């Protein structure tokens, strides 16, 4: 007895044919009126927007074969639509939809975008960065962006060509949720060379940036009984929002000119802390040797350090600072990414968890997305192996120094009395000022004049001096100068108003980072 | 008064210099012994594996500039390492590490891989697909993979070149968590053309495949009071594991030859169900018109349908079946991806949630990874816009038909008495057999003979006939025939053994899908 096959009679009917294109079934057509029928179906699809203006109809030959009608039927249907003015024949471009009746369904509003509200009013929500990004402005001084115009497009394309040429079919299938072995090896070598970290590739997990690293960590931390993660203050608003979204408390730990105050950390009672030791965000403080040793003692007493090494590669006139991870492997979870090295849009980062959390984190990554996409991982691995990434970084560094200097000069000229913090490294400056003007008001006034930046108070939970966080990496000196000049105008205007109304208390500037 | 800048004296010290490469600080070197010092530091880094074999040292010019030493110092240090045999000069390849002392730290074992255990023993865990993927085999008949050798590498590279040429710097920054607007438009058009779905681009969320869609849905469903998602039986093991990992129950709903039994669905009391209406996994049943109407009534009574449209584009000798989403928008969450269209390694998919869940799902995506990577999204958009994806699908279809036919012929020849299900569409066949041999045993015996496949019982919670799920899309006819021949041998061998031991009950084959 042979196998019983359903090939001839699938799902209890007779074999049929048709086209995926609009699910056309020629059986539905009246015999002798096929061109009419086809034209009608296409017209309907154009009217109800299943076919939008600009979309291309299938080649007549192809559609005729799929529908098992003569090619003349399809040609005739297309001709009628062309006569209506719905489509147009374009020699090599095929037949394209060019017009549709005006009727249209209601547009779904952008979720989570509050276009009418200023991003600087009230508590900043999860969508505040989107709102600021969407706002119109001449000059964008928001922090956290490298010089994206320097993205190595040619090198990326060349590496992609090589990857596509040598890729195995297995590489295109489902992969290791921890990431491509080749990239994990390249990252291990990169971190050894540039960050002083010794780790085997099997100890690394490739993720979609630090945001994902935190998402994967939430359940792992919760399972460990961690209910809160202490954060630096000032410290990144985005990170704090992220931890809170994961149901974790974020007790603040003040930062002074040596780094986070470990006595204050102990006082919070938190069992985990998120730190930026190489270049504190936003103050730029480098955690001192003594403070590092105190942190190691705190970790030895049962604490877990989450090290966000977000922009350590960008340093200018100070010695390189190895990652804390180079001193501590057991009680530390290291996180890095290419967002500041190459581009945030690549969504590639890495985590080196403490060994005891590696398995749980891998499982979390598996269930989240089965692992990062393969092609960009392999392209990045090549850029790391070939030394192109180092070259890119050197190019960026030279450019960033000029931009930083231009911004400092502009601050000197246009924001007299302001104090610049954290200039030795990174992609941004923090500028504090003595004037009695809330920084959210200043940022709002700047935005009204076409300049985007972050108010320092966004990145605080504790009281402290007013200020702005200003990115300088993404734009050329002229643009930066113009932006800071506008900030100066806005501050002068607000100060005048504040003085004339005389309702505010004098400022008490105490914060030195 | 000018701004006070920390530029000259960062973090309270004197300006210093050094290299990110191994965090070298020339201040540490004894004066007059700099080459010695540098050679020592490099040797140490090679010994402790911060510099691995194959890695390239910086160009002498570059390292000398960074350390502010003469180039001769670096050249001399490299020469000493070359004399040790640690490094080798290669004209254009620079100076490369070629050897290191044998001492090495302990290797971290692969988490979640149980190499010694057969994947077919006991309950399949979350890592069972990894374990099967990692197993050595001559022939891989696991389902769910398209013909990856057909991946349009040239078209992909061409589209990537165009994308890199026209990309704005803003495209390289942080983007819309819902996905690139251009891809959402292209997907909306694609789904309108090929799946009969009318949706505005703003109603679509780009995600990292269906696995991520489910992860994002878990908290949204939980917030809605949904504690369980009913699943088809047989139905995908991977999906079921995923739902369970999200803390959701997965009550089974039997599938018959019309699709999932809606009376049984009502009896579970579940408020949500995950379905594969266009081509049920693994049986291949197309949900009938009457059953679709019953499902719509169930949804109207408050149910939510999760439609997993995982391989609907691959259909051969049956008419196209529009997505359920084309009939129902309010109570249905549609999920699709390019995993079966192009390659799983791309990790790109889309969700069309019910409008009331769109905002929560967008926020979940934001916190998970801030949105998919930009470049692959834009490349895919171009392939969709230009008609290349349709062309690719036509090419695949012709190839898949030949492969499917070869597999059916092989089943007829080598698995006499077996019944083939679901041949009219998809990338796999389900084959049931009457012999009294558990399918996990058969799959294990096949793997021992070098052939991978899924036992049907993996994809079941309810009792039913033994069988195998066999992918045919990924390999040419000769390989498939060889694989099925081996399955036949294994089955005959096991049947003989089973008869001679006479301990088993006779089989009761009742399942018709």
Automatic annotation (TrEMBL), chains A, B:
<dbReference type="InterPro" id="IPR051446">
    <property type="entry name" value="HTH_trans_reg/aminotransferase"/>
</dbReference>
<keyword id="KW-0663">Pyridoxal phosphate</keyword>
<dbReference type="InterPro" id="IPR036390">
    <property type="entry name" value="WH_DNA-bd_sf"/>
</dbReference>
<dbReference type="InterPro" id="IPR000524">
    <property type="entry name" value="Tscrpt_reg_HTH_GntR"/>
</dbReference>
<dbReference type="InterPro" id="IPR015424">
    <property type="entry name" value="PyrdxlP-dep_Trfase"/>
</dbReference>
<protein>
    <submittedName>
        <fullName>PLP-dependent aminotransferase family protein</fullName>
    </submittedName>
</protein>
<dbReference type="GO" id="GO:0008483">
    <property type="term" value="F:transaminase activity"/>
</dbReference>
<feature type="region of interest" description="Disordered">
    <location>
        <begin position="237"/>
        <end position="257"/>
    </location>
</feature>
<dbReference type="Pfam" id="PF00392">
    <property type="entry name" value="GntR"/>
</dbReference>
<dbReference type="InterPro" id="IPR015421">
    <property type="entry name" value="PyrdxlP-dep_Trfase_major"/>
</dbReference>
<keyword id="KW-0808">Transferase</keyword>
<dbReference type="InterPro" id="IPR036388">
    <property type="entry name" value="WH-like_DNA-bd_sf"/>
</dbReference>
<dbReference type="Pfam" id="PF00155">
    <property type="entry name" value="Aminotran_1_2"/>
</dbReference>
<dbReference type="InterPro" id="IPR004839">
    <property type="entry name" value="Aminotransferase_I/II_large"/>
</dbReference>
<feature type="region of interest" description="Disordered">
    <location>
        <begin position="1"/>
        <end position="35"/>
    </location>
</feature>
<comment type="similarity">
    <text>In the C-terminal section; belongs to the class-I pyridoxal-phosphate-dependent aminotransferase family.</text>
</comment>
<feature type="region of interest" description="Disordered">
    <location>
        <begin position="99"/>
        <end position="122"/>
    </location>
</feature>
<keyword id="KW-0238">DNA-binding</keyword>
<feature type="domain" description="HTH gntR-type">
    <location>
        <begin position="32"/>
        <end position="100"/>
    </location>
</feature>
<keyword id="KW-0804">Transcription</keyword>
<keyword id="KW-0032">Aminotransferase</keyword>
<keyword id="KW-0805">Transcription regulation</keyword>
